[in-house]
TrEMBL record:
Official protein name in the record: ATP-dependent DNA helicase
One BP annotation, GO: recombinational repair
Entry superkingdom: Bacteria
Keyword match Transferase: no
Organism of provenance: Prauserella flavalba
UniProt: ATP binding residues: 210-217
InterPro entries hit by this protein: DNA_helicase_UvrD/REP, P-loop_NTPase, UvrD-like_ATP-bd, UvrD-like_helicase_C
Region of interest (Disordered), residue spans: 465-490
């Protein structure tokens, strides 16, 4: 038979199996719906029964409905290519691999879940170690239709006469395909070195390093899906959190887990880790460096203990006809004494009241002594402690503190100087005060970690008012229930597994924020030191180690193959970062396209036309997405130049927000600007240069970036 006919015949064979799978899926769906209906029926019945029977019937109903809903949720997930693989092994058995495990009515496997041990050979078998696999087949579907098949033969001697082999490599075909707006899962083509990381033990800390495009993000997400499948009991309760660098990034990866049937993983950008608030803008690099530094912890602690701006500076209260007066210095002494006990101020109101009453009693004793009188100290404390005017004073003198309020206090440079004496430099203080005084932009990403730190330092506000004010800017309030999966209680901020992507960029304060959410968690930490934009790696490493705690199990994997960029594009990126990477830190790009990056000299005034022309050209050259990457402070300007052009396929993104993203083609504007706007310039440029899968055009008015 000719190759196309063989291929058609093989596609037809797989189509008949896929049809069986979908027919069975429909049956299972009907069964689950019937179970749910029955559950509701029991519920109705219970309403007519005696009270003691009701409880157990309602419980039974809840369980039935719950299980039915769970099953329906799994069956209803939008599986693109439910069945994607087939293993023909030395024995008679053929295993189909898919996103979900499905058995037929006789309990025979129709599809094996890709995470099950029986599917492991699909990823782990190689020609050197075939693991009894004769032929591995990748099946490509669109909806329920089989489009193509692609085979690898792993044990050539064992291929029976009637076994056909077609295709020339599913991986290369997948890598060459156009990219859409969202990242796709890679279940069908996970490589052996990646599979090892995905299936690594769940406890402790699993670090994944590797250069751009090596699949770190993809692997981390598949690992989350794998861990939930294998260890749902251990991890399902408190859940899994995935932290990414930006909202653009979490949006980009948002389809990957649902496409594998996992809908109970929370994805949060660093600016969204704190419930009820969302920050999207980056501070300029020097300011972000101050806000992210561990030194801020000391500053925040002192700021929180300072006298609140509106607190009264004098107390007067009448007791038995005499005015007892505490001046500013005395009140300060009382405040220091209360803070001297440590602990969160929002939990210290009773102690504040007691200490203040003691100070008033001292004062009364002092007056009495001068007049040669005595007073009953205990009686005074009890009497004043019950007085409404005392409590009115206390409320304003020791107010409930809210993180946002205290952080804004730092906009007052004198106050900040008090808090940051001997901790921050003069310039750092001015920079920080100016940022906190400027409310035009709302909170920045770096501020979120400071707010979270303060939240813990000051303790929760009393319950009654807590809900109305996690005290975050009204326009930034988001319904936190939206982000929280149904199974987790609101404002519960512990997780059992945390995935941190682009971890090389977390500031020490951000590590503290994330670490707090994983006190008892196991971790998957993804990063590439060469792409780091954080200026003080040792400080970040220290904070990171603290976040993990003293865990013994710590394993590190390095991925070495760049699956994203064509070799031609990666060669240019490698050249730019050469002096900033250690030997062996750069990955190896596997795909040659014959298309070298275009470097175009422009005049600064001609940038607009040059960007428009380049974008248009690339939109015509590729089927998928085109990214225009520029310096952070030019995003709006460049966005304006491109308004109205192929909206969904064309995106403008700032250098720092380009982290983790990818496009079929990229226009990179003024690379030298990317270097100068950041403290780790060349690395940021390296990130930008490694975003394109197929074509890259660089528009530059100078050549400094190539030096
Ligand atoms: N085994 C694979 N099969 C198919 N595609 C793959 C495979 N591994 C990686 N890819 C693809 O390569 C691209 C890069 O992957 P990913 O974004 O996970 O890399 P990364 O290491 O996180 O990159 P960066 O550090 O630059 O953000 C993605 O399009 C991903 O789908």
């Amino acid at each position: 038979m000719s190759e196309p006919r063989v291929r058609r015949a093989e596609i037809a064979i797989e189509q008949s199996h896929v049809d069986r799978v979908y027919a069975r899926l429909a049956e299972l769906r009907t069964q689950a719906e019937a179970m749910r209906a029955k559950g509701y029926e029991i519920g109705h019945g219970a309403q007519r029964e005696a009270v003691f029977e009701q409880a157990s019937m309602l419980f039974e109903r809840d369980m039935m409905v719950y299980h039915a809903n769970q099953t329906l949720q799994t069956l209803d997930a939008e599986y693109e290519g439910l069945v994607f693989g087939r293993l023909d092994q030395l024995g008679p058995e053929t295993v189909y691999v898919g996103r979900l495990g499905i058995r037929d009515a006789e309990f025979e496997n129709l599809v094996t879940d890709w995470r099950a041990p029986a599917a492991a050979a699909f990823y782990q078998a190689t020609a050197e170690e075939p693991m009894d696999v004769v032929r591995r087949r990748v099946i490509r579907c669109s909806g329920q239709a089989v489009l193509d098949v692609d085979d690898d033969v792993l044990t050539p001697d064992a291929v029976p006469d009637d076994m056909n082999v077609v295709g020339e490599g599913a991986l290369m075909a997948a890598l060459g395909r156009a990219r859409g707006e969202k990242m796709r899962d890679i279940v069908a083509t996970i490589q052996k070195e990646q599979d090892e990381v995905i299936r690594a033990p769940w406890r402790g800390v699993t670090e994944i390093t590797g250069g751009p495009g090596t699949g770190k993000t993809a692997v981390a997400l598949h690992r989350a899906a794998y861990l939930l499948y294998r260890y749902r009991r251990q991890l399902g309760g408190a859940g899994v959190l995935v932290v990414g660098p930006s909202g653009v990034f979490t949006n980009y990866i948002s389809r990957v887990l649902p496409s594998m049937g996992e809908t109970n993983v929370e994805l949060r950008a660093l600016g969204q880790v704190l419930d009820g608030i969302e920050a999207t803008h980056h501070d300029p690099a020097p300011l972000a460096a101050v806000k992210g530094s561990l030194r801020m912890r000391k500053v925040l602690l002192k700021a929180m203990r300072d006298t609140p701006p509106d607190a009264p500076t004098e107390m007067r209260i009448v007791y038995q006809g005499e005015v007892l007066k505490l001046g500013a210095k005395e009140l300060e002494r009382v405040r220091r004494k209360v803070h001297g006990h440590g602990g969160p101020p929002n939990r210290a109101r009773v102690r504040a009241a007691e200490t203040l009453l003691e100070a008033l009693a001292d004062k009364a004793e002092e007056y009495a002594k001068a007049d040669d009188r005595t007073i009953d100290r205990q009686e005074l404390i009890t009497a004043l402690g019950e007085r409404i005017d005392f409590h009115r004073f206390l409320v304003v003198w020791w107010p409930v503190l809210y993180p946002a309020e205290v952080l804004r206090w730092l906009g007052d440079e004198r106050r900040l100087t008090r808090a940051a004496k001997r901790v921050l430099s003069r310039e750092e203080i001015s920079l920080l005060a100016a940022s906190m005084a400027d409310r035009s932009q709302g909170w920045s990403m770096a501020d979120i970690a400071l707010l979270d730190e303060l939240r813990v330092l000051m303790g929760p506000p009393p319950k009654r008012r807590r809900r109305q004010r996690l005290e975050l800017d009204a326009e930034q309030q988001r319904d936190s229930r939206e982000q929280t999966t149904r199974s987790r209680p609101e404002h519960y901020d512990e997780y059992s597994h945390i995935v941190v992507d682009e971890s090389q960029d977390l500031s020490p304060m951000q590590w503290r924020m994330v670490g707090r959410r994983g006190k008892y968690a196991s971790w998957t930490v993804v990063g590439d030191p060469v792409q780091s934009s954080w200026p003080d790696p040792p400080e970040a490493a220290q904070a990171r180690d603290q976040a993990f705690g003293a865990r013994t199990a710590r394993r590190r994997y390095t991925l070495r193959t760049n699956y994203r960029n064509s070799a031609e594009i990666f060669d240019l990126a490698a050249r730019v970062v050469a002096g900033h990477a250690e030997e062996g830190e750069l990955p190896h790009a596997v795909r040659r396209t014959g298309l070298v990056p275009q470097l175009k000299a422009i005049e600064p005034e001609g940038a607009e036309t040059a960007v428009q022309t380049a974008a248009k050209e690339l939109l015509g050259a590729v089927d998928g997405t085109v990214g225009v990457i520029c310096a952070m402070n030019r995003v709006d300007e460049v966005g304006g130049w491109l308004e109205g052009q192929a909206e969904e396929r064309l995106k403008v993104v700032g250098s720092l927000d380009a982290k983790g993203l990818e496009y079929d083609a990229v226009v990179l504007l003024e690379p030298t600007e990317l270097i100068t706007e950041s403290l780790t310039g060349r690395r940021v440029l390296y990130v930008a240069l490694t975003r394109a899968t197929q074509q890259l055009t660089v528009l530059a008015s100078d050549e400094d970036w190539l030096a």
